[in-house]
Amino acid sequence: MSHNAFITEETIEGDGAGPLAGRTVAVKDNISTEGVRTTCGSAMLESYVPPYDATVVERLKQAGATIVGKANMDEFGMGGTTETSAYGPVENPVDTDRVPGGSSGGSAAAVAAGDADLALGSDTGGSVRNPAAFCGVVGIKPTYGLVSRYGLVAYANSLEQIGPIARTVEDAAALLDVIAGPDPKDGTTRYDLDDDGGAADDRGAAGRGSPTDGGSATHPATDADYAAAADGDVEGTTIGVVTDLLDGADDRVVDRFEAALADLRSQGAETVEVSLDSVEHAVQAYYVIAMSEASSNLARFDGVRYGVSGGYEGNWNESFAAAREEGFGEEVKRRILLGTYALSAGYHDKYYKKAQDARAWVKRDFDDAFERADVLATPTMPVVPPELGESLSDPLQLYLMDANTVPVNLANLPAISVPAGEADGLPVGLQLIGPKFGEEAIVRAASAVEG
Ligand SMILES: NC(=O)C[C@H](N)C(=O)O
After folding, report:
1. Taking burial as the number of CB atoms within 10 A of a residue's CB, which of 45, 80, 96, 207 is the most buried?
2. What is the mean pLDDT of residues 225-239?
3. At residue 253, what are phi and psi to the nearest 5 degrees?
4. Molecular function terms in GO for this entry (predicted)?
5. What three-state secondary structure class fits 402?
6. pLDDT per residue over 320-354, tens digit each?
């Protein structure tokens, strides 16, 4: 094991037979594993051992996979380079002087280095796709509600999904086949959600892959076969090129992106230009919403219910403050403070409500774009992987790196990052975005990029 990709290297054996028998999986350290330490990359949870498995972990075990360790990550998922981990930064296996991306940097690095066949990450604003792009592997952010989050330590619930990372599109899709499907323990998976967030009435039969009875018969994963969709057939597919997200990107990245599109056209796809006016507000809206949700979620780490103890001197406020001062890193503290501010009386309308309005606009823009295209394309990241240590001093610069990935989370859509060659020896990722529950379409198009 190398590159500091793992926080804990304990092996968890699966049930033997099954679609993932003989395959090794790295699991991001914010996904609960019964009896195996789950730190979220934080000193706060250094000795936390969950008493239960996340549903995705149960499904991995049932599918016969062997979990080879808990993967390093930005603390609580907050970062894009895996340098905010309390357990030290991860090196990019392609160039060990560079970051692997984040926040699921350990997951992507483990797969890129061959330390695991497959990995699970979580993607709140790009955390699966960003490290997949930077490490030259494949990552999928599923549609909100496709995959159970039971046992995922929450950062920003309205945005995040657990997603697969692998060296090929077919492998990533096969892992999605195993983890997707309704889960009675996660209400957000038990539906065909209508646009207002209401649940469908039909909650009868057990869904495919569900470890327990229950779940919606109409859940989109029930009839899907994501691995079979990796057939490379893009003939007749209309790909919308999101022109707004090319301005400001590194020229070398844009070159690789355009070469990948030309290749797709040569295979029978058509490309059209689409413009999403709202995306220039997406990073701001994402960070207001993500930090607001984080400030509420992370309130539970107070040294009493969870986390390092703040001692028993003074009143309970002082004790909580001492625990949080000691247990959280700088980036996490920054986000709790900003999120609390954005939600506070007098500022709520100015920041949080405005961000929600921008989010609704982003959703509408995507709806319009999918009237004209089957899938949308952008570079996954506007830049090549920075050098280790280069980005930490400037959080705003780091947030701007998420420009192409966060709109997808704001709109709760699926997207995949697939390798699209290299710029000066560094991996470049192509992002393909699908309509809600359009995972098969993006898997199909991405498999054509692999050639
Ligand atoms: N968690 C993520 O998806 C990464 C994003 N850069 C964030 O810090 O929120």
Report:
1. 80
2. 97
3. -70, -45
4. ATP binding; glutaminyl-tRNA synthase (glutamine-hydrolyzing) activity; transferase activity
5. coil
6. 889 999 999 999 999 999 999 999 988 888 999 99
How far away, in angstroms, is 125 Cα from ligand 1 center? 5
Say whether pLDDT at 240 is over 50.
Answer: yes
234 C-alpha to center of ligand 1: Å? 31
Is 127 in the active site? yes
As a whole number of angstroms, the distance between CA 169 and CA 166 comes to 7
Q: What is the mean pLDDT of residues 293-313?
A: 86
- Residues with beta carbon inside 6 Å of ligand 1? 77-80, 103, 123-127, 290, 402
Check residue 406 and give its pLDDT: 98
Compute the average pLDDT of residues 150-169: 98
Token pair 């330390």 in the structure block, residue: 115
Q: Calculate mean pLDDT across residues 220-240.
A: 95
Q: Where are the domains of the chain?
A: 6-180+224-230+379-450
Q: Is 103 a catalytic residue?
A: yes
For the chain, give the number of residues.
Answer: 451
Q: Judge residue 57's burial from the number of C-beta atoms within 10 Å of its C-beta, 0-12 exposed, 13-18 middle, 19 or more buried.
A: buried
Helix (H, G, I), strand (E, B) or coil at 152: strand
Probe ligand 1: pick from 157, 402, 431, max atoms within 8 Å of CB? 402
CATH topology of domain 6-180+224-230+379-450: Amidase signature (AS) enzymes (3.90.1300)
Q: CA 90 to CA 87: how far, in whole Å?
A: 9
Q: How far is the CA of 298 from the centre of ligand 1 (A)?
A: 15
Q: pLDDT higher for 117 or 223?
A: 117
- Index of the ligand 1 atom closest to the CA of residue 77: 1
Among candidate residues 103, 295, 319, 417, the one labeled active-site is: 103
Let me know if 28 is a catalytic residue: yes
**Burial code of 148-160, b = ≥16 C-beta within 10 A, e = fewer?**
bbbbbbbbbebbb
Q: How far is CA 230 from CA 140, 145, 179, 236, in A?
A: 13, 22, 17, 16
Q: Per residue in 189-217, pLDDT tens?
A: 965 544 444 444 333 333 344 444 444 45
Question: How many A from CA of 405 to the centre of ligand 1?
Answer: 9
107, 127, 278, 447: which one is catalytic?
127
